[in-house]
Design brief:
Blueprint (H helix, E strand, L loop, with lengths): L8 H46 L3 H13 L2 H40 L12 H55 L5 H32 L8 E4 H16 L5 E5 L5 E4 L1 H18 L5 E8 L3 E9 L5 H4 L14 H4 L5 H11 L3 E7 L2 E9 L2
Parallel strand pairs: 2-4
Antiparallel strand pairs: 1-3, 4-5, 5-7, 6-7
Length: 373
């Protein structure tokens, strides 16, 4: 069944009715001329005109009328039909032109970028819907372009800010080493270690920035294959065990040991690892992080739950933004760049899946949904 936006039947019927109406009207006018004028008084009127204009007597004028008009009556009727039809067709074109004027006015409204709703004739309702949809699309695209420009500026600002912090530390410690050539060996080693650690962090930050840019530009190619999801989670849990131990965190796996997913193993492990890192950074001490998985109709749903401060709704939507951190004061503690969840989102989208976050009652939940094939 056609939607109202795509149903042009009313417009088509109105145009067809006008066209056939014009045809019938022209035929009716010619028939009326023949029945009520040509066969009745029209002939007498022509004879009278010939008598007056040509100074003829009645018999001579009648003969001219008979041989000239009656003898070629088929031609006269044909010409009359054509002339009348063309006149009515002209009115039909002028009527159609009004529709083009309405559409032109609607296009002007698009170009004006105002908030006024586009109004057309009732039979032009599908065109009105289309123009209004285009207007809304253009408005959204303009807003998206402005948002993208603003985010690009913010990205440059955040990147400059985040690079400056470790870079300043590197410069500071190297300057200290240069200014104190006779520094004790132990202190020198400690300062070199700190400077190197900051340099590594700076290098990691730049690498992640370029990585997410490549994901966003769709320059990353996936190498998908069947992946043992349970085994991957066991490996990740074991890898993160040293990081979980200081705050006494544990990880519970609640998923079928035979569950598999179809994905790029290296990149999808990056997604799960980044989510676990986030859970580690923002969980309460001495709490458990639960990882579960279930099959839906056409997808596998992997869920990560941890106990931590409830995230306000207005901040949930920004979790996957580049350089976003829930707590800016924890930068030095977590060592995060604010790109982990943003990279995770880009990888999941590249796989054709979705990633969302929910938070209530001091429970934070991340849900990754991946297509089965």
């Amino acid at each position: 069944m056609k939607t109202r936006q795509g149903d042009f039947s009313v417009f088509q019927r109105k145009i067809a009715a006008r066209f056939f109406g014009s045809t019938l009207l022209s035929a009716g006018i010619v028939i009326a001329l023949y029945l009520f004028l040509w066969k009745e008084r029209f002939g007498d009127w022509i004879v009278s005109v010939l008598e007056f204009v040509g100074k003829m007597d009645h018999e001579e004028a009648f003969m001219v009328y008979h041989y000239t008009f009656r003898g070629y009556k088929e031609i006269f009727f044909a010409v009359a039909i054509v002339v009348i039809f063309l006149i009515l067709l002209l009115f039909l074109f002028r009527w159609l032109t009004n529709y083009f004027r309405e559409i032109n006015a609607g296009i002007d409204s698009l170009l004006a970028e105002d908030d006024q709703k586009i109004r057309l004739s009732p039979e032009m309702l599908p065109f009105e819907y289309k123009l209004h949809a285009v207007k809304q699309t253009l408005k959204r695209q303009k807003e998206a372009a402005a948002l993208a420009e603003r985010r690009k500026d913010e990205l440059v600002m955040y990147l400059a800010h985040d690079i400056r912090t470790p870079l300043t530390s590197v410069i500071g410690y190297l300057s200290l080493l240069e200014e104190e050539p006779h520094m004790a060996e132990a202190e020198r080693a400690r300062n070199v270690h700190i400077a190197l650690d900051k340099a590594y962090r700076l290098n990691k930050m730049v690498d992640e920035f370029f990585e997410i840019t490549r994901y966003h530009a769709k320059q990353i190619k996936l190498e998908k294959r069947a992946v043992d999801l349970y085994y991957m989670m066991v490996q990740l849990r074991d890898e993160f065990l040293p990081a979980f131990s200081p705050r006494n965190h544990t990880v519970s796996l609640e998923l079928d040991e035979n569950m598999t997913i179809y994905a790029d193993p290296e990149k999808i492990a990056r997604v799960f690892g980044n989510i676990l890192k986030n859970a580690l950074a923002y969980s309460y001490p001495n709490t458990n992080i639960t990882v579960s998985a279930a099959r839906a109709e056409q997808s596998v749903v992997i869920t990560f739950r941890n106990r931590g401060n409830t995230i306000p709704a207005e901040k949930l939507s920004a979790l996957f933004d580049k350089f976003y951190r829930l707590d800016e004061a924890r930068i030095s503690h977590t060592g995060g760049t604010g790109l982990g969840l943003a990279i995770a989102k880009e990888i999941v989208l590249l796989h054709g899946g979705t990633i969302t976050a929910h938070s209530e009652d001091e429970t934070v939940t991340f849900i990754v949904q991946l297509p089965i094939s």
